[in-house]
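ok trying this again, last paste got cut off
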Amino acid sequence: ILLLLLLPPFGIVGAAWAYLGGVLPIVFMVYWMEKKYLGLSGIVNFYIKLYAKIFFCSTLFFLLAKYLLFKAIFSLGSLIFIGPLSIILYLLIYKLLGFFELEDWELFMLFFNKILLKLRLTKSR
């Protein structure tokens, strides 16, 4: 409904607002489900800490990207190299700041090693 209302007068920006309006209730539904059915308490503090970590890492990454990475992009080849490198840089910042939990880091390394094996950049053990 929001898409039909906002797209004609506002174009693509209206579509973006309609999408936001459509997914925003999901946040409250997840919160309600965690409280009512899962019985989780203190979940608001968990989400505040999580989003603070993400915001801090994203701000630091933005500054590094704006003043270092973007200057290194001068061709399509450099973009193809720096694009994936920027994802690794974000994860590295998150890890260096100690925000990864041990189980999450182990799972990430498991998937990363499988990718390296698939690309034949490492040998199987």
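PB: full thing came through this time. The chain has a mean pLDDT of 90.
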